[in-house]
Amino acid sequence: MSTPILQVDGLVVEYGGRAAVRAVDGVSLHIAPGEVLALVGESGCGKSSTARAVIGMERAHAGTIAYHGASVKPLGLRTRPRALTAMQMVFQDPNSSLNPRVRVAQQIADGTRAARSRGVSSPRPEEWLEAVGLPASFAGRFPHQLSGGQRQRVAIARALAARPDLIVADEPISALDASAQAAVAGMMRELCLDSGSGMLFISHDLSVVRLMADRVAVMYRGRIVESGPTPLVWANPLHPYTRDLLAAIPHPDGTGTLPSAPAAEAPEAWSEDIPVARDRAA
C-alpha cells in the first residue's frame, strides 16, 4: 500500500463545556493517493465534524491527524501554511465559502495563486469553469448572479484550481439538481485519478457513493462501525446499520425507505458494540 496522504487515528471532537457532547468518538481512517474514501451515515452522526477537524477548522480533543506524516494543527488567525494549501475543502453550502462582493474569476484565481505558490501550474479561471460544466463567460459574474447549483460548481472549481492533493468534500453535490449530481461527482473522481489526489467524500446519497468511492466508511453515533472496499461493503454488509442504509436506497419501483429509528432511539441491533471487520480488505 502506498503511503497515505491522510492518516487519522483515534479522532475525538467534542462540543460544549462541562456537559460536553462527543460528536466524533475515536474515528480512524486513511486515504491513499488517487483514492476516494466516502464517509456515510445519517445526519448528526459526526461526518461534518470529522471533515472540519481533518482540514483544521475544528479542534481535536484527542487523537492525531497527519497529512503527509505532519500533524495538522487547528487554523488560527494566521494565514494557512503554504504546504497546507494543497488541502482543500468543498462545503455543502457555497454561500459560506464564496465572497458575494468578488467576481467569480477572482475567487477561482485565489486557488490558482495557491497552486503557483507551491510551484504547481494551474489553468486560467475560465478553463476551470469549463471543467466543472459552466460557461467561461461566468468568470465576470458575482455569486448572486448564479443559481445555487452554479455557485457550488464555482466553489468546486476554486478548490480544484489550487491543485490539491487532498480534497475534503462535505456533501459537495447536494446543491445540484439530480441530473447534474452524478456528472459532477464523476468529474471530481476523474480529476482525483488524473492528478493522484485523494478525497474524503461525505455524502448521504449512497447511489452516488457506490459509483465514485473506492472505499466506504459507515459512521454511526460518532463512530465508524464498518469500512472496506465499496463493492465488498455493498455485496456483504456486516453491520445492521449498514444494511439499513443500503436498504434505504430508492429503487426504480419506488421501494427503499429511510432507517426507521433516529439515532437517539436506535434499536439494539444497531449497537456500536456489534463486532465487525471495521477495515476489510478486498
Automatic annotation (TrEMBL):
<dbReference type="Pfam" id="PF00005">
    <property type="entry name" value="ABC_tran"/>
</dbReference>
<dbReference type="InterPro" id="IPR003439">
    <property type="entry name" value="ABC_transporter-like_ATP-bd"/>
</dbReference>
<feature type="region of interest" description="Disordered">
    <location>
        <begin position="252"/>
        <end position="282"/>
    </location>
</feature>
<dbReference type="InterPro" id="IPR027417">
    <property type="entry name" value="P-loop_NTPase"/>
</dbReference>
<keyword id="KW-0547">Nucleotide-binding</keyword>
<comment type="similarity">
    <text>Belongs to the ABC transporter superfamily.</text>
</comment>
<protein>
    <submittedName>
        <fullName>ABC transporter ATP-binding protein</fullName>
    </submittedName>
</protein>
<keyword id="KW-0067">ATP-binding</keyword>
<dbReference type="InterPro" id="IPR003593">
    <property type="entry name" value="AAA+_ATPase"/>
</dbReference>
<keyword id="KW-0813">Transport</keyword>
<feature type="domain" description="ABC transporter">
    <location>
        <begin position="6"/>
        <end position="246"/>
    </location>
</feature>
<dbReference type="InterPro" id="IPR017871">
    <property type="entry name" value="ABC_transporter-like_CS"/>
</dbReference>
<dbReference type="GO" id="GO:0005524">
    <property type="term" value="F:ATP binding"/>
</dbReference>
<dbReference type="InterPro" id="IPR050319">
    <property type="entry name" value="ABC_transp_ATP-bind"/>
</dbReference>
